[in-house]
Design goal:
This protein has 7 helices and 48 strands. By secondary structure, the chain is mostly beta strands. The structure holds beta-D-galactopyranose.
């Protein structure tokens, strides 16, 4: 039977490489104990040199091989190493890989020393090698280095299941069934017979099963197809009901060998048509944001929990239904969570504008294969992006990437993201970055203007805003408002156009980037949240599009100050809300009720309330200033209140952890948010205090312990050690000491 052991701990890291390492001679260099996921270099928050992490480094580890594994086939499975890796066991090169976003496996059976020491050495090239996509030209994001995802050791019998592709068929009818392609790895030439079993279950209850006798007559990968029928009872995977099923495929042969392969699947039909996107036959407007899988200081090297938290933010905090994994396959933990919570995914191959030479294209094609074969069982993944993001047309190259995708996975449509119009349409869905909106009347173009075709095709807008209006969380209130309104205008325009299946905005989170992009400080401030996942007002444009039964949203775009805006005052006051109406009170007196602006935003379900002015209440420059209160009403009842104080004074340093329970595995993290607030709990955005983050117990701060607040707040990730215990965290500023919180690491 198969055995899988995670190799998170026990690594030694050297930020250098010497040929001597390949002879297991490690002397004369500094080696550091590290845990995966690992960033080859921690970088500052901003104003760093992105070449700092672009070097060749080495990881090594002793492997404990159980003598009982003799006779098995042994593998090391790498989930993501940036950007190229060479893997040596006991001085034997056992594998290599180019490309930092897709997994690879190395068979080590022939190199293992049973009963003796086994030294693993991984040479990691994190330079931007022009032979590896996405590299070769400039690009607007960083590809941080290191073994930044997990590594597993796997022991299997000689004949084993390499992969399983479960294809739900006819899911919208009672005759639905599951076709299961089983990829069997057979190292032998002589004929072997065996039996396959596939069991579909949910919550431990078997839903269906199938058996099949197999005769393996050739060496290599043999694909056997099984069919599970009588699935009328199966419940569909959908946005609000992401029903998942477990599929276990087992193989027994007469040798004897046995193996079993487990995955999670969902039954759903997802198709983009010229008249919109249909999920399980129901029209759904795609509403999403692009995500970079990056964090401050450690870049990509964040563990499972942080990956999952991002999916939760998009689904539960921003109430989106879609994410685009710009511009590469993202962590499996992120995709797993998208499956669990019902968040649709547009996934694409690594690349950014540049297409390299023939070898480069060949490698990009292998990334298409690696992405699809890793992720084809995720019900959340609805489209394969098979073009290099925003690259020029390339008939032969993209004919080939489409061919590979369709051949490997006939169940999903392909797409390819471009930003130039009239591009050759080789995919199933035309995906366009439409940056037409720059504040004026033009918001989104008619798809026929973009495609140059005289008929409608399946069409999604995969980016908008972004560099058209970069906005920092600590920018001026008027800019923050316009930033948010631009997002809302696009949502509204898309809502009115049935030939736009939906929109995916640029982008969810601010991100570090190269000097050719961003604000000069190596940050692109394009997110509706900052790099710490702290929201800007634009986040509320999305957040407000949820049924008030799920969450009542009431977010006025104001700091409530007399002199923040040009000419003074708080009008026009935009309130992102799903309430029926809002009432403003000034100094305790009602000024009136105001209603959603359906004229300006007819295409969204919950338009913002825009109060252009409120006569006479807040006076002119030089008059009195008052407390404010905004009340949101749903079905005639006050459902939410937001209070502002006329004379804010910094009153408290708040501390809040996202999670109280962590795993003591040396890599688990929780975010902790620090905010200085006024008397009524609103952040005071212009306080420029520092904080010192204090930790007691088996945990540590990821990145610096002393930071300055950015716009009145900041977050840090607290990481566990391998020792269990209680981690106490608190913060000290020049004026306050926060309360102390406890995180249990177990
Ligand atoms: C797009 C690109 C994104 C990002 C964005 C900024 O052209 O695909 O990666 O750079 O512009 O608006």
């Amino acid at each position: 039977m198969r055995k899988v052991i995670g190799l998170l701990q026990g690594w030694q890291y050297c930020d250098n490489f010497s040929e001597a390492f390949l002879q297991n001679d490690f002397d004369g260099y500094a080696w550091q104990e590290v845990t995966l996921p690992h960033a080859n270099k921690e970088i500052p928050y901003n104003y760093f040199d992105e070449r700092d992490y672009q070097f060749v480094s080495t990881y090594r580890r002793e492997l404990d091989i159980d003598p009982s594994d003799q006779g098995k086939r042994l593998f090391l499975d790498f989930e993501g190493v940036m950007a190229a890796a060479e893997v040596y066991l006991n001085q034997v090169l056992v594998g290599s890989h180019r490309g930092g976003y897709t997994p690879f496996s190395c068979e080590i059976t022939h190199a293992v020393n049973f009963g003796g020491e086994n030294q693993l050495v991984v040479v990691v090239d994190s330079t931007e090698r022009p032979d590896i996509p996405p590299f070769g030209h400039v690009m607007d994001y960083l590809c941080y280095g290191g073994i930044y995802r997990e590594v597993n050791f796997r022991a299997v019998d000689p004949i084993f299941i390499e992969n399983v592709f479960a294809k739900p068929k006819n899911v919208l009818t009672e005759a639905r069934e599951l076709e299961v392609d089983v990829y069997i790895n057979n190292p032998l030439n002589n004929a072997v017979t065996g039996e396959l079993q596939a069991v579909l279950s949910r919550g431990g209850k078997v839903v269906a099963q199938a058996f099949r006798s197999v005769e393996l007559t050739t060496r290599g990968i043999i694909v056997e197809t099984m069919r599970l029928t009588d699935l009328a009872e199966v419940e569909l995977w959908d946005l609000d009901t992401p029903n998942l099923y477990q599929l276990i495929v087992s193989l027994r042969t007469n040798l004897p060998t046995e193996d079993s392969y487990t995955d999670r699947i969902g039954f759903r039909e997802a198709v983009v048509r010229p008249d919109g996107f249909f999920l399980n036959g129901r029209r759904v407007k795609i509403r999403g944001l692009n995500r970079h899988q990056a964090w401050p200081y450690v870049g990509y090297a964040m563990p499972k929990r942080a990956q999952r938290d991002d999916a939760d933010i998009l689904k539960y905090q921003l109430h989106l239904n879609t994410v685009r994994t710009s511009h590469y396959p993202q962590s499996r933990h992120f995709l797993d969570r998208c499956d669990e919570i019902g968040l649709l995914v547009i996934e694409e191959i690594p690349g950014w504008q540049h297409i390299g030479d023939a070898e480069w294209k060949k490698l990009a094609c292998s990334h298409v294969r690696e992405m699809i074969q890793r992720d084809w069982n995720h019900p959340s993944v609805i489209l394969w992006g098979v073009r290099i993001n925003e690259s020029r047309d390339d008939h032969d190259f993209y004919t080939e990437t489409n061919r590979i995708a369709r051949e490997l996975d006939p169940t999903r449509q392909t797409c390819g993201v471009r930003f130039h119009g009239h591009s050759e349409f080789l995919e199933d869905v035309y995906t366009m970055n439409d940056f037409a909106h720059s504040g004026g009347d033009l918001v989104l173009r008619d798809q026929r203007v973009v495609t140059g075709l005289d008929h409608y095709v399946p069409y999604i807008v995969t980016e908008y805003n972004g560099h058209m209006y970069p906005t920092k969380r600590f920018d001026h209130e008027e800019r923050l408002m316009e930033h948010a309104l631009r997002h809302m205008r696009v949502l509204s325009a898309a809502g009115l156009d049935p030939h736009i299946a939906g929109t995916v905005g640029w982008c969810a989170f601010d991100y570090n980037t190269h000097y050719q992009f961003g604000s000069g400080d190596r940050i692109c401030y394009h997110g509706v949240m900052d790099m710490f996942r702290i929201p800007k007002f634009a986040a509320d444009a999305y957040r407000s599009q949820v049924d008030p039964e799920t969450e009542v949203v009431l977010s006025p775009v104001t700091l409530w100050a007399r002199g923040e805006r040009s000419i003074g005052g708080v009008f026009p006051l935009v309130v992102f809300t799903n309430c029926d109406c809002v009432e403003i009170k000034v100094d305790g007196q009602s000024v009136g009720k105001f209603f959603p602006d359906r004229l300006q935003f007819p295409g969204v379900k919950y338009p913002p309330v825009v109060i252009r002015h409120a006569p006479g209440i807040l006076g002119e420059w030089g008059s009195q200033w008052y407390d404010g209160e905004i009340i949101g009403y749903v079905n005639g009842k006050a459902a939410a209140v937001k209070k502002f104080i006329k004379n804010p004074v910094a009153s408290k340093l708040e501390i809040k952890a996202d999670h109280q329970l962590l795993d003591a595995d040396g890599s688990d993290v929780t975010r902790v948010v620090f905010r200085i607030v006024d008397q009524v709990g609103n952040v005071v955005p212009y306080i420029n205090d520092f904080i010192s983050i204090e930790v007691d117990g088996p945990g540590e701060v990821v990145g610096p312990k002393q930071v300055v607040l950015i716009g009145g707040c900041i977050a840090a990730w607290i990481k566990t050690k391998t020792k269990p215990g209680t981690i106490k965290v608190w913060a000290v500023s020049s004026r306050f000491v926060s309360e102390e919180i406890e995180i249990i690491s177990q």
